[in-house]
Each structure stands twice: as C-alpha cells, then as structure tokens.
Amino acid sequence: MADINSRSSQLAAFDRLLTIMDELREQCPWDRKQTIESLRHLTIEETFELSDAILENDLEEIKKELGDILLHIVFYAKIGAEKKAFDMGDVINSLCEKLIRRHPHIYGDTKVKDEEAVKQNWEKIKLQEKGNISVLGGVPKSLPALIKAMRIQEKARGVGFDWEEKNQVWEKVEEEMKEFKEEFDVVKDAIDKEKATAEFGDLLFSLINYARFIEINPEEALERTNLKFIKRFQYLENAAKSAGRKIGEMTLAEMDVYWEEAKKL
Fold it and tell me: Max Cα separation, the chain?
C-alpha cells in the first residue's frame, strides 16, 4: 500500500484512474454505452452500499465502496468533457471554490464561536449562491422522507428557526402523540385513516426533531434497529429449522422462545 501521507503518490494514483477511465471509455463496449442518465441508478446503489459498510464499521469495505463512488464521479466528468460542458478539473476547482466561499472563518475575516455558527453561515451563504426563494429550496425532492425531514429541520435551524430547549421539543412529541391517539383511538369503531395518517406524520416529524436536538441520527438509529431485528429473526428461523420445525406452522408463543434466546446473544 502506498504511503497514505504522500501527496505525490495520491496524485499519481488519481492520474492513473483518469487514464484508465479514458481507456475504458474508448475501448470497452459497456463503458462506451453509458450516459449520465444510465449511471444515475447505479450511483444511488453504490451510495447505499457505502452506507452499509459504514454501519458495519468495515474499513476495508468502506475503502472499496469509496473507490466505486469515485469511479462514478470520474465517469460523469469524462462524459461532461465529451459534451464540452465540464471536466474533472472543473469539478474539483468548483468544489474548492465553494469550500473557500463557505468557510469565511478560515479564508476570510468572519469570526465564529462554535460549530453551530459555522453551520448557520454555511446555509446562509448557500442560500445566497443558489438564489433560492425558500431556505428549503435546496432539499432534494427525491430524498427518502425520513432523511428529508432531517434536512428540512437542519436548514430551518440554519437560519435560526428552531426550538431553544430540548424539553420544548419533547413537549411537542407528547402533544403530537396525544393528537394521534385521539384520532386513532383503538376503541373507536370508525377511524378516519386520512386524519390518522396526517397525525402519525406529525408525530414522526416531531420525534425526528427531538432526535436531531439530542444529536441522534434517526436514520442511523432506525437502521440499527432494522439490522438487530433481522439478526434476531434469522436466529429464530435457523433455530426452528434445526429443531425440525417450520416457522410458518409455529405458534407465536413458540416463536417467542427463540426470540428471547436471540435477544441474549
């Protein structure tokens, strides 16, 4: 492995990648066929694979997945160069200029007292750059709803629209829980699903807000619970199979025995 502290070796490696990309685009039938549009869904998939590796804290896999994403970035830049729109140098220089603009406390005279002030400056500068009418205009429409809620709340906080104390946020959670329970009272014969859905959405939004306020990433928290459930359920399946049982034919009480065993692992 090359010395990770050697700038020259890193630049040489990047130059090698650019050369390989040129060769693949010219000589490989699959690579020649790709477009910005055709690569889009593959890039999304690679991003999720990186996310999995990060959650598993697998540094070797993280390295590989970062390489895959870097390949996509270089690929997009190569296509951009063919269209005479931009090349890899343009992409990198544009990024460098943006980082300098958005860190005036490093590259300018702006004074900041903490991390929160840095984030607020970032959002204000970003708003000026993009010329958005709304602070929330930069939130991608296609983001998953949970992540979108996080970004909406972060952007609102970036311009000072936020709760002051965490107990205020928790009171909002309790208020939304009460409203949801009233709308979705299990003793009612008839339930207005539309209203119940709206109240449940409000409850989720307030919970995400509270998680953000106490510095818990709700997306990561939920995914950890997903993985924990999968692990325990697969233990249940394997234990039942070892006992010669079919899980679909077992009672809930019988499955709970294995489930409790899985929780102890």
Answer: 72
